[in-house]
């Protein structure tokens, strides 16, 4: 693949494996599209698909999957723990290689237009594609969920970006472009959740910390320790090591140490290369020097 | 490419660009072979080619290039600063992905057999392919160089592994399998070369240091500092961070600090992933979590 755009569509079906298989089918065996992973959660009643591809091939596959989901999933009967507002709940596009954020924004709008024209599925544009700053945050956009959407969109500030009415069974979809997320968790040698919460507050953007870091403290009860659970929302600007070292420094005042970390799901290679560059103090390193990068060119 | 074997053949022509182009030609535009880089050095009168490929395609391309080099290069007229013994001086094969060391050893022997059958170019097997421990080290094998080889191979311990006489103009070639080398240099904030040499002695295998580390101290005269210049000969067993941290510890006794490092040439992604795992203390990380690794599968 010359170009790599990642897409992580979430569909509101996590229990019926036959339906899930049909929804995922458009991502299989196509030139220019590669299905990397999909995992369904029965409690959430949701499947998260990870796919990469070139722009046109990816667009066609995503639109096809949205069409299938809108036929197979009836949101009036959907139950699950995860907030949701549509059969296809959210479609983020992420630039990975030879693709710009602007291109992903354009792609998100094309998909939004196509799924309304073809399937009458309306959408909100969110994140970098948002038409207003109040629509950037997915949680804001989705507030009210499927059941509250028909009412919510009557307010002028919540008119959908594409479409004017909620699809009766498929609801509404959030579509947008964003940077890759890295789920990065740091473990501390204490069972005091209050300490974890204080440190999380100190490192996260919301309460005065790092610009591209969301964080909260959670208890790992089986291990008897706590964790700073983070979403790094732009690792190119807030690198992993900076959050890690800041947690170390904040933990010192409580006499607490870092005992490990974990990365959940996929991480772009560049995030790890940047980590090595920092800790080894590598001067003038070019990512072209990484053998696999060169091979992928 | 399903399988990736790297090959870094060195040819004894670094000045005539037309000849270099002909020698490199077999690595271009072939399915299952990808030319990553080649760089010629006029002082060394040598070109170093970096290519990756699948076993059969790579074998055919390498053999073809050896044939062309043996026609174009006349070692009786060769001058250059770098030690050399053949038109094709050395051919290392390196397992990168879905290839074992054993497979690379077998491949090296097949190539050795073919180039003798086709072009009457004899060879020594070296590194992991060596038929005796005295032949593992390339410097030992090449000692005497082209001019001394006809005499050297008269000794029973230096009978070539393939062939019985030196090719009159193409000399003899060293062929073998080895781990990828990482050229990793660490800079110190002193101009005292003696300190660099002491630290190099402490970290390198030869004089009691790390098993897969070669090191020497060199002066970076323009910058007024010194450097520990290392070849990491198996980064999977002696990782980069271990050498780096050991240099830091050894430097402390001289009141000296590390001020940076550099990686010369290509480095396998796994070497950098391992670095991130160490410094961030990442638990249970799978290389399958690296997006680009997943895409390459």
UniProtKB/TrEMBL annotation, chains A, B:
Its pathway is: Amino-acid degradation; L-histidine degradation into L-glutamate; L-glutamate from N-formimidoyl-L-glutamate (transferase route): step 1/1
Q: Name one Pfam family in it.
A: FTCD
Under the heading PANTHER family, the entry gives: FORMIMINOTRANSFERASE-CYCLODEAMINASE
Which ranges form a coiled coil? none
Q: What is its main location?
A: cytoplasm
For this protein's source organism, the top of the classification is:
Bacteria, Bacillati, Bacillota, Clostridia, Eubacteriales
- The answer to whether the entry has keyword Transferase is yes
Which terms are listed as keywords in the entry?
Cytoplasm, Folate-binding, Histidine metabolism, Transferase
Cellular localization per UniProt:
Cytoplasm
* Ranges for domain Formiminotransferase N-terminal subdomain: 3-179
* Protein's organism: Fusibacter bizertensis
Protein name, per record:
glutamate formimidoyltransferase
Q: What class of enzyme is it?
A: transferase
Gene giving rise to this polypeptide: ftcD
């Amino acid at each position: 693949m010359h170009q790599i755009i990642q897409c992580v569509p979430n569909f509101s079906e996590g229990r019926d494996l036959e339906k899930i298989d049909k929804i995922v089918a458009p991502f299989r065996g196509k030139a220019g599209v590669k299905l990397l992973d999909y995992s369904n959660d029965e409690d959430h009643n949701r499947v998260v698909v990870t796919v990469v591809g070139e722009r046109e091939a990816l667009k066609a596959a995503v639109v096809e999957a949205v069409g299938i989901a809108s036929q197979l999933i009836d949101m009036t009967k959907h139950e699950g723990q995860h907030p949701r507002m549509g059969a296809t709940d959210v479609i983020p596009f992420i630039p990975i290689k030879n693709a710009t954020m602007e291109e992903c924004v354009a792609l998100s709008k094309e998909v939004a237009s196509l799924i309304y024209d073809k399937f009458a599925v309306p959408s909100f544009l969110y994140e970098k594609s948002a038409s207003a700053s109040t629509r950037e945050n997915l949680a804001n956009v989705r507030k009210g969920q499927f059941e509250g959407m028909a009412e919510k969109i009557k307010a002028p500030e919540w008119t959908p970006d594409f479409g004017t009415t909620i699809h009766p069974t498929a609801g509404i979809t959030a579509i947008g472009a964003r940077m890759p997320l890295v789920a990065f968790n740091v473990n501390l040698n204490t069972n005091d959740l209050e300490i974890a919460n204080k440190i999380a507050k100190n490192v996260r953007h919301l309460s005065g910390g790092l610009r591209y870091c969301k964080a909260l403290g959670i208890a790992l009860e089986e291990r008897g320790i706590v964790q700073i659970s983070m979403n790094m929302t732009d690792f190119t600007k807030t690198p992993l090591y900076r959050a890690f070292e800041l947690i170390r420094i904040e933990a010192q005042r409580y006499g607490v140490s870092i005992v490990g970390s974990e990365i959940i799901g996929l991480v772009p290679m560049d995030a790890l290369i940047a980590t090595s560059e920092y800790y080894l103090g590598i001067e003038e390193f070019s990512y072209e020097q990484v053998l696999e990068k060169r091979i992928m060119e």
